[in-house]
Design brief:
about 180 residues, Rossmann fold, five-stranded parallel β-sheet, four-stranded mixed β-sheet, globular, binds adenosine-5'-diphosphate, binds 1-O-pyrophosphono-5-O-phosphono-alpha-D-ribofuranose
Length: about 180
């Protein structure tokens, strides 16, 4: 059986990368897609492939991505090779923009969407604590926080205001309902 693409979405600082890493730690069969980003290398957080604008444009033009978008002044690409992992039967977590969900569902009909939420004050505190972006950049990220999901996208809503383990429990329970 094919694996499922599991899109993890939500505002900056909500905990997408933290929840994904903790989910994969609990279920080693769950993979995490390594994104290609025009971000400086080694800024911490997720494991990503850092590339320059020219390399990104070349990759996009030669079909290296199954999905790509632009946000926060950066370009993001999802390697088309994720289809090989899915064909091998592996469920794959991927951190996506809310803006590409309709396109993603058309391209991956069996995909599941996990929508993480948290209160605005929680987001502000976490972004400051993460320390990856300067204050002005944090402000513009917070301004996008309440963006809604595109019409017609069905998602599992998961609150991540409390301990990380609670969000991870909720996400795993939604994906892998226990058989009674
Ligand atoms: N449930 C949580 N409780 C406390 N801190 C959290 C929780 N979830 C995430 N964090 C912290 O918040 C910051 C942002 O999390 P991150 O996973 O980078 O979010 P995102 O990928 O959605 O921007 C990180 O410093 C992370 O350690
Ligand atoms: O359209 P949106 O839903 O607002 O999302 C836009 C981008 O923001 C996040 O990026 P990134 O992972 O660089 O930032 P984050 O870790 O602060 O969320 C997310 O992964 C998208 O790439």
């Amino acid at each position: 059986m094919s694996g499922r693409l599991i899109a993890v979405v939500g505002p900056s600082g909500v905990g997408k990368d933290s929840v994904m890493a903790a989910m994969a730690a609990r279920r080693p069969d769950l993979g995490i897609v390594r994104r290609v980003i025009t971000r400086a290398p080694d800024l911490g957080g997720e494991d990503y492939e850092a590339v320059g604008e020219t390399a990104f444009a070349h990759m996009a033009a030669t079909g290296a991505f199954c999905l790509s978008w632009q946000a926060h002044g950066l370009r993001y690409g999802i390697p088309a090779a994720v289809r090989d992992d899915l064909a091998d039967g592996r469920d794959m977590l991927v951190n996506l923009s809310r803006g590409v969900l309709a396109e993603m569902q058309a391209a991956f009909p069996g995909a599941v969407v996990l929508h993480l939420t948290a209160r605005p004050e929680t987001l502000a505190k976490r972004l400051a604590g993460r320390g990856r972006e300067p204050r002005e950049v944090i402000e513009t990220r917070l301004a996008r926080a309440d963006m809604s999901l595109p019409a017609g996208v069905r998602a599992v809503e998961i609150a991540n205001d409390g301990p990380l383990s609670e969000a991870v429990d909720a996400a795993l329970a939604a994906l892998y309902p226990a058989r009674v």
